[in-house]
Design brief:
There is one protein chain. This protein has 454 residues and is of the alpha+beta class. It contains 11 helices and 8 strands. The protein has helices spanning 43-56, 83-113, 127-149, 151-155, 160-188, 196-227, 243-260, 288-309, 314-339, 352-358, 368-389, and strands at residues 6-10, 14-18, 22-27, 37-40, 63-64, 265-271, 274-280, 361-366. Strands 4-3-2-1-5 form a 5-stranded antiparallel β-sheet, covered by helices on one side. Strands 7-6-8 form a 3-stranded antiparallel β-sheet. α7 runs antiparallel to α11 and α8 (288-309) runs antiparallel to α9.
């Protein structure tokens, strides 16, 4: 075969599918390199191809051609009674239920960790620490809610909503792994004391991550057959026209990761002798365990951005990317909350009494790189919205009330949808046409001939 052709529907004499950058109609059994007609690989092209197909075929003979995937030895897809399909549906429902259950337990553990001693004090007593963790828990809860809401449709073989919930939870877990690891790294390096809240929070992360993985595993078994409803189907693959938005998405991931590392906090110490500004928060100025965790955060955001750009269907990438954006946006909000709070002089080795005696005042703000970080996070949010709203190719309907006439008719093929109508009107006599010597009117082709379609 000179090219790979995917057939989606077949009738008594014709079949429709997708070739290389086009949709086409073939005579059943004819070489796939010789379509009867072809259209551009666009939503409008698919609509025209389908309309032409149902005009040529008898609608009741059209059946969907399921894609054939790899089969393990001894694996039986099912019989006429649908036992295998029913078993797969039950397995999908039980797996999605397990995913929702794990996420729920993990969220409960995360809520409990807010009120326990985390690293010297509870997260609930520190607004700049509480807000990010609330964002994580809310995103995981949204993922669990989508999985539960998608259970009825998963039974019917349409697992899109439940899969979106699993992807959302997976995106949160991917980026928060390094953030929880950073807290643990501070304890390991001796910078902060350990508390029960830290370990309960880590257990919650493990449970939520296990729930996300369980949801993705269940959906991966069913998506190929359930999502394919035509050539291209709902699974819109990235095309050349998507080059600009995809480049923005990847650039947003790289920029967010790069601007996450430098210092965000700037402190100005004002004394009678003058003022001094120092920065803090550089990802590479901490002990090795914390640096490793910060690098893990940067790698995760880049990996999620690339995975979202290559997602198939593209809309599923929006759920994964949204899950990663939420923790990154929460970090920015946390930084702004911290700026608005009073700065303790103990950060600079001074007691409050010593600072008051020396007349030291401390003010805090954010560095310019923080705003660069915010711009890149916004770029990721715009890319997420683009992935979410990117139109998919329409699914082929089973029947259409009024068949489309089509752009042209293949040679020798009569339009069976248009019965012949007798012409009862008498032809008006007209002036005789001069003979050009070849039996036809001058300057034209012989009467009765027509151009055949190749």
């Amino acid at each position: 075969m000179p090219e790979k052709v995917t057939i989606s529907h077949r009738g008594a004499r014709y079949e429709i599918g997708r070739g290389k950058r086009y949709y086409g109609i073939w005579v059943t059994g004819a070489p796939e390199s010789d379509p009867v007609d072809r259209w551009p690989e666009t939503p409008d092209g698919w609509a025209q191809a389908w309309g032409r197909f149902i005009a040529l075929e008898t609608p009741e003979t059209i059946t969907e051609v399921k894609p054939e995937g790899f089969k393990f030895p001894g694996f039986r897809r099912g019989n006429a009674s649908g036992e295998a399909e029913g078993g797969a549906a039950r397995a999908g429902v039980s797996g999605a239920g397990a995913a929702a259950g794990l996420l729920t337990v993990g969220i409960i553990a995360g809520i409990v960790s807010l009120f326990l001693d985390y690293t010297g004090q509870s997260l609930a007593s520190q607004a700049e620490q509480l807000v990010p963790h609330l964002f994580y828990l809310a995103a995981w809860a949204a993922g669990a809610g989508l999985i539960v809401a998608g259970l009825p449709r998963a039974v019917a073989g349409e697992p899109g909503r439940a899969r979106a919930g699993a992807l959302l939870a997976a995106g949160v877990s991917a980026t928060t792994l390094g953030m929880f690891g950073s807290d643990l790294g501070e304890v390991i390096s001796g910078q902060e004391p350990s508390g029960a809240g830290l370990y309960v929070g880590l257990a919650g992360w493990v449970l939520c991550t296990a729930g996300a993985i369980a949801g993705l595993t269940v959906k991966a078994r069913k998506d190929t057959a359930a999502a394919f409803s035509g050539p291209g189907g709902p699974a819109a693959y990235p095309r050349k026209r998507h080059g600009g938005p995809v480049a923005l998405l990847v650039l947003g991931g790289l920029g967010t990761a790069a601007s996450f590392a430098p210092s965000w906090d700037a402190y100005t110490l004002q004394t009678q002798a003058g003022s001094q500004t120092v920065t803090a928060g550089n990802a590479f100025s901490f002990p090795a365990p914390v640096i490793a965790a910060n690098v893990l955060v940067m790698v995760a955001i880049i990996a999620v951005a690339i995975a979202a750009a290559l997602s198939r269907p593209m809309r599923q990438g929006s759920a994964l990317l949204a899950g990663a954006i939420i923790p990154m946006a929460a970090q920015a909000i946390s930084a702004l909350i911290q700026v608005g709070e009073p700065t303790s002089p103990t950060m600079f080795g001074l007691s409050p009494a010593q600072a008051a005696e020396a007349g030291v005042t401390i003010s805090s703000t954010v560095t310019p790189i923080f705003w660069v970080y915010c711009v890149f996070v916004i770029a990721l949010a715009i890319s997420c919205a683009w992935l979410m709203t990117e139109p998919t190719l329409p699914a082929a309907p089973n029947a259409v009330p009024s068949p489309w006439a089509g752009p042209m008719t293949p040679a020798g093929e009569e339009n069976r949808n248009q019965p012949p109508v007798a012409d009862n009107t008498a032809e008006e006599p007209g002036p005789a046409k001069p003979d050009n010597g070849d039996g036809g009117p001058e300057g034209g082709e012989p009467e009765g001939s027509q151009n055949s379609f190749a």
